[in-house]
Please model this.
Amino acid sequence: MFQTVIFDLDGTLTDPAKGITNSFKHSLKSFGEQIPSYKELCTFIGPPLKNTFRQHFNYDDEKTNEAVKRYREYFTRKGLFENKVYKEIPEVLEVLNMLGKKCYVATSKPEAYSVRILDHFGLAKYFRRICGSNLDESRSNKDEVIAYTLDAAKISDDEKSTVLMVGDRKHDILGAKRNGIQSCGVLYGYGSKEELEEAGADYIAKNVPEVLKIAITTF
Model:
């Protein structure tokens, strides 16, 4: 049975769409870019910022660093809390803790911001550790963050079969696989069922209560 449950943040615990899309708009406007549609902006939720600016907009390293800086001008001022907790997440975390499950967060968002967000929404108390990237965007690839979280949780190789990663994008699933743990993709976030299945998710949860069911009843 799973003893440790690791949660992604954006698109899994909270819906950050407003703050993230507004931060991207602020950054892109400063470069005179045509602003993508809201639907397209939402596809940027989850992957590391630098990856998005490099791969989607073909920015070089210097321009990418400046784009991240301008993104954070808005995010740290307003976007951080333009966010909301998904319905039933507090109740699920409460039950997991009552059952003695060890809960962690592994996110590509900077750790300092993630702690502030979860503390703001009263969720930090449910997690033994909130793990994220560094402010310079190092340790932002999901496999790196998950490895960092497993190390923080002191999970041995023999214990990895008792760990479940929960997330809404392919990066969560692929990161879990690269670290030798099982994964649950959620459909209420920003990844599609096809994306999650193609990445190789071990389980798919249509809603928040199904996450709890998978975490506590799967052997």
Observations:
- The first strand starts at residue 4 and ends at 7.
